[in-house]
Sequence to fold (178 residues):
Amino acid sequence: MNYALLPILLSLTFLAIVISIMAIQHYKNFMVTFVLIPIAITAGLVVFFTIDALLGYPVPVPSVTKDSVYISHVVSKDRESIYVWIIEPGEDTPMAIGIPATENNKKQLNKAKKETKEGKPQLIGDKGSFMGKGQTRGGELTVYPLVVDIGVNKQKSAMQEEQEELQQQRNNYLERRQ
Fold:
């Protein structure tokens, strides 16, 4: 929970209570009152959690999406959390997440930071996503390099095909000359 948004939560709670009290005191139709109270409470909660998600504060996540691009990280002042900037697969904008500050996570993220500074983009993901279902390890991360296929293998195979074709033409020419 983000305590900086506590005034907004309290304001929305107060507003939901006032609407509920007014609906109860001035009801003429029981069904309208019965529907209005849950709508007021739900609307307040939706607004609170939407604002929290959009403000850019790190969002605590149960697991990091596999193949997320690592950008940067910092350890919190209390040394209990690590705030990581990532870009999730299929997204264009980075997001800040909060993960537990375990020894493995610190080690993996420091490795990612070092490799990124050397110009080697890194991907991160939850270890559990690599181990299979039901085998998660409580938010432990793994880091691995981003491999970009720029068609080098395709170019090599095209060049090899061209060389083989030239060799075949040469062999055909030599056979005809004999």
